[in-house]
TrEMBL record:
This is 5-formyltetrahydrofolate cyclo-ligase. SUPFAM superfamilies: NagB/RpiA/CoA transferase-like (SSF100950). Belongs to the 5-formyltetrahydrofolate cyclo-ligase family. GO terms for molecular function: 5-formyltetrahydrofolate cyclo-ligase activity; ATP binding; metal ion binding. The keyword Metal-binding applies.
Amino acid sequence: MPMEYAGHDKSASRTKLSGLRNGLSEALRNEWSSLSCRHLAQWLDAHSCRTVMAYVSFRSELNINEFIEWCWKKNIEVLLPRCVKADHSMTLHSITGWEQLTAGSYGIMEPDLERSSAKPVGTVPDVVIVPGLAFDRRGGRLGYGGGYYDRFAEAMLATGTPPLWIGAGYEAQVLEAPVPSDSHDLQLDGLVTERGLMIIGQ
Ligand SMILES: Nc1nc2c(c(=O)[nH]1)N(C=O)[C@@H](CNc1ccc(C(=O)N[C@@H](CCC(=O)O)C(=O)O)cc1)CN2
Ligand SMILES: Nc1ncnc2c1ncn2[C@@H]1O[C@H](COP(=O)(O)OP(=O)(O)OP(=O)(O)O)[C@@H](O)[C@H]1O
């Protein structure tokens, strides 16, 4: 598929999908977020996992704050990303409380440089929880077009021991048809929604 078409295809899908997500009521979003957090916790409890890279939700994304707090209680290290706009890369910071965050790029709450230090480049978490606009059941993901997670995944691959990538969203964001994708797009290993966590078979 020519790149120009691929880009266009994604941008039309983004507009439609963010409208769809914004249309979900706050009450339902909260309920579904809570349920998804419980599924994540249950799964992590059954798998030995020391370090999780999570995200802090913005706009109407699935909110995984309860899961982050559960990790803190369980002494699972929580890494949160900071966007580097210059090259669309992300740095990872170990975070132990909400007070270590500050409003960052795109209005997303990010690790405050004065209250957290970046992990060394090449740090690989056991699991990465990946936000997105839409997902399919084969590991496809559509993000906001920054390419942040795709670049991050490429850097992780280079370390030789990639983490487990788990997409997180509402069931309403899971499309039956494959989401538009390009060759650089991150392939997810699993997906969590309010209905449960599924591992994607090859
Ligand atoms: N909670 C959360 N944190 C995250 C992500 C995410 O999806 N969710 N990211 C996942 O990558 C990164 C941030 N990526 C982003 C990329 C673009 C836009 C954005 O506002 N894009 C504009 C359109 C861009 C354009 O002008 O072309 C928009 O959507 O209006 C926001 C975040 C890192 N942190
Ligand atoms: N590994 C990579 N190296 C260089 N450029 C990349 C890489 N991955 C993606 N890009 C570029 O980044 C841009 C955005 O990619 P894409 O539309 O797939 O982002 P996305 O996955 O939706 O965004 P995000 O991860 O920020 O939510 C595209 O122009 C793409 O060519």
